[in-house]
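Side project, low priority. Logging it here so it doesn't get lost.
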Amino acid sequence: MRVSAKADYAVRATVELAGHDGSDPVSAEALAAAQHIPHRFLEAILRDLRRDGIVVSRRGSRGGYTLARPAEDVTIADVVRAVDGPLVYVRDERPSDLEYTGAALSLLHVWVALRANVRAVLERVTIADVADGTIPAEIRVLLDDSDAWENP
Protein backbone atom coordinates (compact mmCIF):
# COMPACT_ATOMS: atom_id res chain seq x y z
CA MET A 1 0.00 0.00 0.00
CA ARG A 2 1.22 3.49 -0.81
CA VAL A 3 0.11 6.64 1.01
CA SER A 4 0.00 9.54 -1.43
CA ALA A 5 1.57 12.92 -0.70
CA LYS A 6 -1.94 14.35 -0.89
CA ALA A 7 -3.19 12.01 1.85
CA ASP A 8 -0.12 12.63 4.03
CA TYR A 9 -0.49 16.40 3.67
CA ALA A 10 -4.23 16.22 4.38
CA VAL A 11 -3.69 14.27 7.59
CA ARG A 12 -0.91 16.61 8.69
CA ALA A 13 -3.06 19.68 8.01
CA THR A 14 -6.01 18.29 9.99
CA VAL A 15 -3.72 17.30 12.87
CA GLU A 16 -2.32 20.84 12.84
CA LEU A 17 -5.87 22.23 13.01
CA ALA A 18 -6.60 19.91 15.93
CA GLY A 19 -3.62 21.43 17.73
CA HIS A 20 -5.42 24.79 17.77
CA ASP A 21 -8.32 25.42 20.10
CA GLY A 22 -10.77 25.77 17.22
CA SER A 23 -12.05 29.19 18.21
CA ASP A 24 -9.88 31.04 15.71
CA PRO A 25 -9.55 29.82 12.14
CA VAL A 26 -6.07 29.02 10.86
CA SER A 27 -5.06 30.39 7.47
CA ALA A 28 -3.95 28.06 4.71
CA GLU A 29 -0.64 29.91 4.69
CA ALA A 30 -0.10 29.21 8.40
CA LEU A 31 -1.01 25.53 7.96
CA ALA A 32 1.33 25.22 5.00
CA ALA A 33 4.20 26.86 6.87
CA ALA A 34 3.67 24.84 10.05
CA GLN A 35 3.71 21.51 8.22
CA HIS A 36 6.03 22.38 5.30
CA ILE A 37 3.31 21.72 2.72
CA PRO A 38 3.32 23.51 -0.64
CA HIS A 39 0.67 26.23 -0.24
CA ARG A 40 -1.04 25.81 -3.61
CA PHE A 41 -1.26 22.04 -3.15
CA LEU A 42 -2.69 22.55 0.34
CA GLU A 43 -5.41 24.85 -1.02
CA ALA A 44 -6.67 22.03 -3.27
CA ILE A 45 -6.52 19.58 -0.37
CA LEU A 46 -8.49 21.94 1.87
CA ARG A 47 -11.17 22.21 -0.82
CA ASP A 48 -11.53 18.41 -0.79
CA LEU A 49 -11.65 18.35 3.01
CA ARG A 50 -14.27 21.12 3.03
CA ARG A 51 -16.37 19.31 0.42
CA ASP A 52 -16.40 16.17 2.60
CA GLY A 53 -17.29 18.08 5.76
CA ILE A 54 -13.99 17.60 7.56
CA VAL A 55 -13.06 21.29 7.67
CA VAL A 56 -15.03 24.51 7.44
CA SER A 57 -13.70 27.79 6.18
CA ARG A 58 -14.36 31.37 7.07
CA ARG A 59 -13.61 34.26 4.75
CA GLY A 60 -12.20 37.63 5.63
CA SER A 61 -9.17 39.09 7.32
CA ARG A 62 -9.64 36.76 10.30
CA GLY A 63 -10.64 33.87 8.08
CA GLY A 64 -9.14 30.46 7.67
CA TYR A 65 -9.97 26.86 8.48
CA THR A 66 -11.19 24.91 11.49
CA LEU A 67 -12.24 21.30 11.88
CA ALA A 68 -15.94 20.85 11.13
CA ARG A 69 -16.37 18.47 14.06
CA PRO A 70 -14.33 17.48 17.11
CA ALA A 71 -10.95 15.93 16.28
CA GLU A 72 -11.90 12.79 18.21
CA ASP A 73 -14.75 12.28 15.71
CA VAL A 74 -12.50 12.43 12.62
CA THR A 75 -10.47 9.35 11.73
CA ILE A 76 -7.40 9.11 9.57
CA ALA A 77 -9.57 7.02 7.21
CA ASP A 78 -12.07 9.89 6.88
CA VAL A 79 -9.31 12.26 5.82
CA VAL A 80 -7.66 9.85 3.38
CA ARG A 81 -10.99 9.00 1.76
CA ALA A 82 -11.80 12.70 1.38
CA VAL A 83 -8.70 13.35 -0.71
CA ASP A 84 -7.92 9.97 -2.31
CA GLY A 85 -11.15 7.96 -2.33
CA PRO A 86 -11.32 4.35 -1.13
CA LEU A 87 -8.44 3.18 1.05
CA VAL A 88 -7.38 0.14 -0.99
CA TYR A 89 -7.56 -0.24 -4.75
CA VAL A 90 -6.26 -3.01 -6.95
CA ARG A 91 -5.76 -1.87 -10.53
CA ASP A 92 -8.01 1.13 -9.79
CA GLU A 93 -10.87 -1.07 -8.58
CA ARG A 94 -12.22 -1.88 -5.15
CA PRO A 95 -11.17 -5.40 -4.11
CA SER A 96 -14.80 -6.46 -3.72
CA ASP A 97 -15.42 -5.62 -7.41
CA LEU A 98 -12.65 -7.91 -8.69
CA GLU A 99 -13.01 -11.41 -10.10
CA TYR A 100 -10.27 -14.02 -10.29
CA THR A 101 -10.30 -17.50 -11.75
CA GLY A 102 -8.22 -20.63 -11.62
CA ALA A 103 -5.16 -20.74 -9.40
CA ALA A 104 -5.57 -17.01 -8.55
CA LEU A 105 -9.11 -17.44 -7.21
CA SER A 106 -8.13 -16.99 -3.56
CA LEU A 107 -6.09 -13.85 -4.34
CA LEU A 108 -9.33 -11.91 -3.92
CA HIS A 109 -9.35 -12.97 -0.25
CA VAL A 110 -5.86 -11.53 0.17
CA TRP A 111 -6.87 -8.14 -1.25
CA VAL A 112 -10.05 -8.01 0.86
CA ALA A 113 -8.04 -8.95 3.97
CA LEU A 114 -5.54 -6.20 3.15
CA ARG A 115 -8.38 -3.68 2.93
CA ALA A 116 -9.81 -4.93 6.23
CA ASN A 117 -6.45 -4.49 7.96
CA VAL A 118 -5.87 -1.02 6.55
CA ARG A 119 -9.36 -0.03 7.68
CA ALA A 120 -8.77 -1.58 11.12
CA VAL A 121 -5.89 0.84 11.67
CA LEU A 122 -7.01 3.99 9.86
CA GLU A 123 -10.61 3.85 11.12
CA ARG A 124 -9.43 3.38 14.70
CA VAL A 125 -6.93 6.26 14.89
CA THR A 126 -8.46 9.72 15.15
CA ILE A 127 -7.00 13.10 14.37
CA ALA A 128 -7.15 13.82 18.12
CA ASP A 129 -5.10 10.68 18.84
CA VAL A 130 -2.31 11.88 16.58
CA ALA A 131 -2.48 15.50 17.76
CA ASP A 132 -2.35 14.38 21.40
CA GLY A 133 0.27 11.68 20.82
CA THR A 134 -2.10 9.06 22.24
CA ILE A 135 -2.20 6.37 19.58
CA PRO A 136 -4.61 3.61 20.72
CA ALA A 137 -2.96 0.69 22.51
CA GLU A 138 -4.16 -1.88 19.96
CA ILE A 139 -2.40 0.12 17.25
CA ARG A 140 0.75 0.79 19.31
CA VAL A 141 1.20 -2.95 19.84
CA LEU A 142 1.81 -3.28 16.09
CA LEU A 143 4.86 -1.06 16.55
CA ASP A 144 6.41 -3.49 19.05
CA ASP A 145 7.27 -5.88 16.22
CA SER A 146 10.79 -4.95 15.11
CA ASP A 147 9.90 -5.99 11.56
CA ALA A 148 7.35 -3.16 11.45
CA TRP A 149 10.24 -0.69 11.26
CA GLU A 150 12.17 -2.53 8.55
CA ASN A 151 11.81 -2.48 4.78
CA PRO A 152 12.58 -5.98 3.53
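Brief comment: The chain has seven helices and two strands.
Revisit when time allows.
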